[in-house]
Design goal:
19 helices; alpha+beta; 584 residues; binds molybdenum atom; binds the ligand Nc1nc2c(c(=O)[nH]1)N[C@H]1C(S)=C(S)[C@@H](COP(=O)(O)O)O[C@H]1N2; Sulfite Oxidase, Chain A, domain 2
Length: 584
């Protein structure tokens, strides 16, 4: 291959396919269903859906027992002593800001939860360990990983069960957009709405504490616990004392709202963010303690908490004085009239329409979703890219198994290179550089060698620790000397992406200068295997996995990537609507 003159366009770009600007259902990852959610206890798997009838029976039983207990003097004394009310505060009514805040929250939460479930469906397994070794998950809604698929690495003939194969379809009314492996779009929805939810939450906190409304939520005596228990018992006895939320929350309400507002919501944000490479890598110790899989599992428990809270909260709103309660929250009046109920049902009808339209809309306008997401949260992603990833792990942390992703290169050109032990391999580095060059593998191996033990964070949710060794990208920069016009390094590969066309990805120059950005030719002390990107793959530790291009064939420095492919900055960016900056 001739060396190209500095600044010239690359013929490799012709190998890149343009992607559609809408989701073409016939060409999208075909639907593949998993199984009902299961949890593992020891070696056995249990269908979690059994918890629904079991929970219902348990509730009836608990209610029956509570009703019988009522005749016991001790229970009567307990209830007399702790009637169930929270201690009084100086608040009254539900001001307009609170009502608006509440309805925004309702709409945002609905789609945050749906897109969150969609994200989970891209790697439908949860672990408490960092490694994600198949079989060690405690929760899944996917079959076991096919036997044999995880073995025989390094050969070209075995069946490869990639993380993408593992993604499952969930119903379109449940997830958004409800397509298999639509995590790119689901993440934009999730994060964009998160951003609005955080703003709504900050406004709420500020107004809560600058008015007297905080007194509704903050318990000021430990008596809130026995009172909440008493209240729960009285609900189970089907004989709750009359309460008047206009002036008073009962202790159970106060406790539940307190936990939701001051514990569950901030924790959801914290454990969501801890899943991001740039953030976990920044807070070394914390990132190790709360590793990505622990964070994912806890984030999921918080989802379950919210679902449980919503079910109980909404049920009680309806059965403890529907008209009055709905007047409170819809109109801010304490009247007993149907007005609030009518407004609440109009709001719920609107929610239902949005619920039904969300998936079809996203499928029809994926670039709009991508662009809006980039506008709302792209800048945060850009900011955290400047953080140096620094967290390193030790040999004993190395995962026994690292999920693979991508389709192995199949071209005749690559096969010839591989058969020849990559003797003929040449990494071409060109574009906006002073000294375009080609490097053989031997030349690359003679350069300074850097080793690092780091976590790989795939966008789909899995992670794993591996030791990588290779040439620091900084060294390559010194050799080829990018011009001041160079703003991105585009990595071209030997394989095709799922929709055909060459896999490629663009990085900001800042990423190339990071200490932990290397071109790796070794993994875990051995020559890099074919599956993991032989002969050369990129490691760029503050980005998600898809930006670590495997089977690298060339690197082009450019000032702008909008002319390459569909102009989004990479294969997944073009075809799956990811963002080109993905440190979160
Ligand atoms: N050339 C190429 N590089 C690629 C991919 C691909 O499909 N083609 N997949 C990416 C994705 S999505 C991930 S998570 C990682 C997976 O790396 P691994 O297979 O070594 O675990 O490679 C990334 N690099
Ligand atoms: Mo990935």
């Amino acid at each position: 291959m001739p060396t190209l003159a500095a600044g010239s366009r690359d013929p490799l770009e012709a190998l890149i396919a343009r992607a559609h600007d809408e989701v073409v259902l016939e060409e999208w990852a075909p639907a593949r269903y998993g199984i009902a959610p299961h949890i593992r206890i020891g070696k056995r798997w249990f269908n979690v859906l059994w918890l629904l009838p079991i929970g219902f029976v348990a509730l009836i039983l608990a209610s029956g027992v509570a009703i019988e207990l009522r005749s016991l003097p001790a229970v009567q004394e307990f209830i007399a002593r702790y009637p169930g009310q929270a201690l009084g505060g100086a608040y009254e009514g539900f001001p307009l800001w609170l009502r608006l805040n509440h309805v925004f929250n309702l709409f945002l939460m609905a789609f945050i939860m749906r897109s969150g479930i969609q994200i989970l469906a891209d790697h439908p397994r949860l672990y408490f360990n960092r490694d994600c070794t198949p079989g060690t998950e405690w929760f899944r809604f996917q079959h076991a990983v096919p036997k044999g698929a995880t073995l025989g690495e390094g050969t070209r003939s075995f069946v490869l069960w990639t993380a993408k194969d593992d993604a499952v379809t969930i119903p379109r009314w449940l997830g958004v957009p409800g397509l298999r492996h639509s995590i790119g779009l689901a993440r934009w929805i999730h994060f964009s709405l998160d951003m609005l939810w955080v703003i709504n939450g900050i406004v709420y906190y500020v107004l809560l504490f600058t008015t007297n409304q905080w007194q509704r939520l903050v318990p000021r005596s430990w008596d809130v616990f026995p009172n909440a228990l008493s209240m729960a018992l009285q609900y189970l006895m089907l004989a709750p004392p009359p309460t008047d939320a206009w002036f008073h929350y009962n202790a159970l309400q106060q406790l539940a709202y307190f936990i939701t507002v001051f514990i569950a919501a901030p924790a959801a944000i914290f454990f969501g963010l801890m899943q991001a490479p740039a953030i976990a890598n920044k807070f070394g110790f914390l990132g190790k303690l709360v590793n990505r899989q622990v964070a994912r599992s806890i984030h999921f428990f918080i989802l379950l908490y919210f679902v449980g809270f919503i079910v109980v909260h909404v049920s009680l709103v309806f059965i403890t004085g529907m008209r009055k309660n709905l007047n409170h929250i819809a109109l801010g009046t304490d009247a007993v009239s149907w007005d609030g109920t009518i407004i609440a049902f109009i709001a719920l009808a609107l929610l239902a329409v949005l619920w039904v339209r969300a998936s079809p809309f996203t499928i029809k306008h994926p670039r709009l979703v991508q662009r809006t997401g980039r506008f709302l949260i792209g800048w945060i992603k850009g900011l955290v890219e400047y953080w140096d990833p620094k967290t390193q792990y030790s040999e004993k942390d190395i995962s026994p198994y690292l999920w693979p992703n991508g389709l192995l290169p199949t071209s005749a050109e690559f096969k010839e290179l591989a058969d020849g032990g990559y003797q003929a391999y040449k990494l071409r580095v060109y574009g906006l550089v002073d000294k375009p060059q080609e490097f053989s593998l031997a030349q690359l191996k003679a350069m300074p060698k850097q080793e690092q033990i780091t976590v790989h964070y795939c966008i789909q949710g899995w992670s794993g620790v591996a030791k990588w060794a290779g040439v620091p990208m900084r060294h390559i920069l010194e050799l080829v000397k990018p011009t001041t016009a160079a703003r991105y390094a585009v990595f071209y590969s030997f394989d095709e992406g799922g929709d055909g066309g060459m896999y490629y990805d663009a990085h900001k120059m800042e990423n190339m200068k990071h200490k932990l950005t290397i071109l790796a030719y070794e993994m875990n002390g051995q020559v890099l295997s074919l599956v993991h990107g032989a002969p050369l793959r990129l490691r760029c530790e503050n980005e998600l996995g898809f930006k670590h291009v495997k089977w690298v064939r060339a690197i082009e420095f450019v000032d702008d990537f909008s002319r390459i492919g569909s102009g989004q900055g990479g294969y997944n960016e073009d075809h799956e609507f990811y963002g080109y900056r993905m440190p979160i």
